[in-house]
Amino acid sequence: MTATVANPVLPGCYPDPSVCRVGDWFYLVTSTFEYLPGLPVLRSRDLVTWEQVGHVVHRPEQLGPDGLDYAGIGASGGLYAPTLRHHDGRFWLVCTLVDRDGGSGAGGRSRRGHVLMTAEDAAGPWSAPVWLDGDGIDPSLVVDEDGRWWFHATRPVAEPAWPGQTEVWLRELDPAAGRLVGPEHVLWTGALHGAVWAEGPHLYRVDGAWYLVAAEGGTEHQHAVSVARADRVTGPYTGHAGNPVLTHRHLGRGSDVVGVGHADLVEAADGSWWAVALGMRPYGGYHYPLGRETFLVPVVWEDGWPVLAPGVGRVPAEVTVPWPAAGRPGAAQGAVSGVVPPDDLRWTAVRALPAEVARPVDDGWDLPLRPETLADVAAPAFLGLRLQHRTADLRATVTAALADGEEVGVALRQSEDHHVRLAVTRGPGGWSAAVVHRDGGADRAGAAVPLPGGPDAPLTLVLRVRGVDVDLLAGAGDAEPVVVGRADLRTLDSVATGGFLGVWLGLYGTSHGRPTGTVARVASVAYTPAG
Question: Looking at the annotation, which residues are catalytic?
């Protein structure tokens, strides 16, 4: 018996997936960049129905100057490309904290670097981060047949043969001491001449041989997965004659899925093999507002090499799994409609934990306004959810006694320099709302629309997403919300703006730089896939 299910298995911005198996359970993590909690941990029995059980970065003690210091890290910086593994009853995770602007943290320490965190339970609590020496990004871990741990990652070649050439390097890890030891070994400098930006390297031991799987070509249209093989973990590695073993770049930008890469392999308890990989689904032209999503790909072994998507050679729109009970996507995958309560693990904030910017109250939140705005590289009063569907509604009910110069609203966020907000303010005539587009760091405000109702009237704020078109609606009291303005998601995706993120939907409040004691009462927030 089998079940046929649709790809992607994790819709919305779940990039750089890493997977491991413990008994009958699969566990998976993805990148989160500047959003917190960081690195969602999900589990599944069938690689299809994923339940989020926690986050790796979930406690204030893991953050700040002595931990993962997010201060000053801009959009699409933060936590990149985690690897999750399990050994001897413990989960192990390595990741890179990246400051794309190259700034330094407290005491002059670089905020860019590799960290190691562990937990007995994937749901947490996870340990404080341990910093590891070493250059580059996208670290991974493997344990060899002698019980030795090996850390590997990618970095630019010191004297490249072509621009953007990178290498995969390896060094032994002393897990008890939390440090790298012994000499470095360079394993790989590219499957193809001219291939750039190797990423997501993972080592596996299968039938006595060592396999290195890595993506090349950058994380956009030229993304591709290649594989090499060696007799020893330290190499030398020989590339597969069939490289790349998975890519969509030859299908063109009109393909339904583009940018496929960053694969991680896992063996199921029944002996079948699978890969999770990222990819993007364009719509409205070559744009992908949902970001980099997680797809499932079957794997077989032929002549000592892995074959990804056998017989098809591309990520399938539907995949057949050998688990007849494979269910429909769950809450973590955005399939559950209605109110999203405060304890739902999908809630995120920017450079701060949600509990640090808001207080849970019943089905909603108390959201104290902050002087910071969405345009600041800071921790604004913002609570957000990934956009996971091409058609969806976000509806929030908010009450706030705003002072002059203060605003509350809902927003479509890509970055500090690229977002759209539905801004509600209070003046002598009562409530008014306007849509403000921030494009390339400059604000462009639409006409203000007056809303009926006094200052105590609750606000109803709506983001109505229909493909790339978004209506932003507002109403006060019993009045039906009216369209205040519109937005085009094609101006907010990473094709248009750069970076690595999909679009987030969320609530915010700001006093625009002034001290404030105003608290917005968010009675409820509902996210509803429509159609």
Answer: 16, 199
